[in-house]
Amino acid sequence: MLVTMEEILKEAKEKKYAVGAFNVPNLESVQAVISAAQELNVPVILQHAEVHETYTPLAEIGPIMLEYAKKATVPVCVHFDHGASFDMCVQAIRLGFTSVMIDASAEEYDINLAKTKEMVKIAHAAGVSVEAELGHIFTSSVGGGEGRGAVGADDYDSLNDCYTDPKTAKAFVEATGVDALAISFGTTHGVYLTEPKLDLNRITEIKNEIDIPFVMHGGSGVSDEDFKVAIANGIAKINYYTYSAKAAGEAVETYIKENPDTQMFSHDIIDVMKTAMKENVKAAMKVFASSIL
Ligand SMILES: [Zn+2]
Questions:
Q1: Average pLDDT value for the chain
Q2: Would the pLDDT of 37 be above 70?
Q3: Do 108 and 85 form a contact (C-beta atoms < 8 A)?
Q4: Which phi and psi angles does 19 have, rounded to 5°?
Q5: Does the pLDDT value for residue 154 go beyond 70?
Q6: Average pLDDT rounded to a whole number, residues 168-174
Q7: Residue pLDDT, tens place only, 40-73
Q8: Whether the predicted model's global pTM rises above the 0.85 cut
Q9: pLDDT at site 87
Q10: Sign (positive/negative) of CA torsion 60, 63, 66, 72?
Q11: How many Å lie between the centroid of ligand 1 and the Cα of residue 189?
């Protein structure tokens, strides 16, 4: 069933688990993610990132995401990820998305605040939840790219001021009225090239100031143990894409190598890809929702 981000994260926060938010740039990934969630009986967030417009535009993939969400046996939120423009966010709302992210985190604080506030006003009037981002989440040069506040992940030590400041987070959430906040504590979008240096205590420090559901972007290279600590500290939504897409690509590579004399058909390749993606997504869901499974 289709639900809002506010509803789906309320329960996650209470029961101390995180809802996986998966980018679904094509029909097969929608099918893989929904069937993984149904098999485990966990809530899920399907999301379309604005940078994935080149794969399948919102106007085409959006109705498919909504159709699968409505038919699903588990609660599903349909979310627009890293929205850079008002136009695209409003387009998502008009299509029936139940949540949007306005990402002005690359802008100066005052501009981020003003844009987020405006988006909250519009979205809440339509019964739609809003996620915003404060701080800068790193973006790897490989496989990443969905982050707007992107900085290179090559030099963590000099980038400490990119981490979300707890007092600023409190002021930002109170002034904007956002339903969920993406925070930066050292994670990376895309394939990690250097070991991530996570500041997991920062999540608790932010939660002590403002108690709303927090979103973790960029789970690349993060261990299962660190995911669990992040969730216990207050992360209720985890964006996850790169590694499931990579697992699907690698499964196809292996299939081709192991079947050198077989004629390759696109429907078989798609099947291999979809199965691998589903298994990877299920494994991630088991970590994120371990407190209820
Ligand atoms: Zn992100």
A1: 91
A2: yes
A3: no
A4: -90, 130
A5: no
A6: 97
A7: 999 999 999 999 999 999 999 999 999 999 999 9
A8: yes
A9: 95
A10: negative
A11: 6
Rounded Cα gap, residues 292 and 41, in angstroms = 10
Q: Residue 9 in contact with residue 236, Cβ under 8 Å?
A: yes
Report the CATH superfamily, name and number, of domain 5-288: Aldolase class I (3.20.20.70)
- CA distances in angstroms from 9 to 2, 21, 66, listed in the order given: 13, 11, 18
| CB burial of residue 286 (10 Å; 0-12, 13-18, 19+) | middle
Please give the distance, rounded to the nearest whole angstrom, from the Cα atom of residue 101 to the centre of ligand 1: 10
Measured on CA atoms in the order 80, 52, 245, 155, is the torsion positive or negative? Answer: negative
Number of CB atoms found within 10 A of residue 160's CB: 10
The reported pLDDT for the residue numbered 192 is: 67
pLDDT at 156 over 80: no
CA of 241 to the centre of ligand 1 (A): 9
* Active-site residue set: 81
User: What is the Å distance from ligand 1's center to 259 Cα?
Assistant: 36
Q: How far apart are CA 78 and CA 66, in angstroms?
A: 7
DSSP 17: -
Q: For the chain, how big is the Rg over CA atoms in Å?
A: 18
Q: Give the start-to-end residue ranges of the domains of the chain.
A: 5-288
Q: Which residue spans within the chain are E strands per DSSP?
A: 19-23, 44-49, 76-83, 99-102, 129-134, 138-139, 180-183, 188-189, 214-216, 235-240
Residue 259: CB partners within 8 Å, gap ≥ 6?
Answer: none
| Ligand 1 centroid, distance to 256 Cα (angstroms) | 32
